C-alpha cells in the first residue's frame, strides 16, 4: 500500500506541475495567478478521492468507531478543517508566487520593444543632439559677448555703457531661455532612455537614480555644461548595456 501511495503521489505531482506550466503558458500572469487556486481545488478533490480509494477499509473502520449520525458529523468536521487549512495554504503560496514574480512582471510590462542595440543607438543620437545644442549656443554666446566687449570699450559715456550692459544682460537671458526651450524638446526622450536603462540594468538601478539628480532631468540648465553632463550620463550606462 505505501508503494501505491508514493506512486500516485508522484503522478499527482507531475499533474500539478504540468497544470501550472500550462496556466503560465496559455494565460497572462494575472489571470494565471487567479486560476491557480481553482486548479488546486480540483487537485484537492481528485487527491482526496485517490487517498480515500487507497485507504477505504481504514477510513471505514475509523468512521465506524462513532455511532450512527455522529460519524457523518466527524467526517464533515474533519473535512471542513482540512479544507480551510488547505485553502489558506494555497492562497498563501499564490501570494508568495505573486510577490516573487511581480518585479520581473513589471520589467516585462514596462520595457519597450527596442532591442538593447537599438536603445544604445538612440542614446548615441540623443547625446549628440544634446551636445550640438550646447555647443551652438556656447559659440553664439562667445561671438556676441566679444562684440559687446568691443562696444563697451568704445562707449564714451556712462549712460551708453549702462545701456549696453542692460542689452547684454537681456540678450544673455534670452539666449539661455532659447537654449532651455530647445533642450527641453529632448527632455522626454532623455527621461525615456534613462528609465529604459534602469529597467535593463537592474544592478545599476541605484546608481542611475542617484546620478540622474542633475538640473536638466528637471528641465533646467545650470552649471558649466548641463547638456553634456546628461549626454555623458546616458552614454556611460549605455556602454554597460551594449558592451
Question: What's the tally of helices?
Answer: 9
Taking pLDDT < 50 over at least 5 consecutive residues as the criterion, the unreliable ranges are 103-109
End-to-end Cα distance, whole Å, is 60 Å
Q: How many structural domains?
A: 2
Q: Report strand %.
A: under 5%
Report on this structure.
The protein has 243 residues and is mainly α. It folds into 2 domains: 2-110, no CATH class; 116-242, no CATH class. It is built from 9 helices and no strands. α1 (2-26) packs antiparallel against α2 (29-54) and α5 (116-154) runs antiparallel to α6 (158-184).
Summarize the structure.
The chain has 243 residues and is mainly α. It folds into two domains: 2-110, no CATH class; 116-242, no CATH class. The protein has helices spanning 2-26, 29-54, 56-63, 70-110, 116-154, 158-184, 187-200, 205-211, 226-242.
What are the key terms here?
243 residues; mainly alpha; 2 domains
Secondary structure elements and pairings:
Blueprint (H helix, E strand, L loop, with lengths): L1 H25 L2 H26 L1 H8 L6 H41 L5 H39 L3 H27 L2 H14 L4 H7 L14 H17 L1
